[in-house]
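hi support,

uploading two proteins for the ticket. first:
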Amino acid sequence: MSAMTKKAKNFKKSKGGLYLSIGSTAFGAISVAKQAKLARQESDTLRLVDAAVSAAAIVTGLAILYRELKRLGDDDVLLG
């Protein structure tokens, strides 16, 4: 394993990496909100269901990332 690959894997488990993942996942919520709005305007039930499932996936992903962040910060007094 090269040094760059090892560094990238360690970044994924760092607080900075988790914050970046949370931000990019939350940014995906904007796309889902637009999709849901368009589906409601067009009365497209299938697209509305797709948006709801995507929103559930985003919420679940954020919850998992938040849990990982809390695990990293167990020794940190400010994170709780």
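and the second one:
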Amino acid sequence: MNTKLTLTIEQSVIEKAKKYARKKERSLSDLIENYLKALTKVEPSEPKETTPIVDSLKGSFKAPKDFDYKKELGNRLSEKYL
């Protein structure tokens, strides 16, 4: 069931949105409806399975803000295998 909705939007934004809708051969109402659907889409969150040991360690390590994980991993792997 469709219901009428009144919005207050700057005139320049409305004009640009109407132009965009015409280029895409869609109505402005359709664009806004699809945007709102995408915005409010509820994605099911899958529970993450962790072991009790991992859970107990969570938050115990604080890395420096400039820590480069990929670089450090590369260095460690090079030391181990080269």
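thanks. also noticed: DSSP finds four helices and no strands in the chain.
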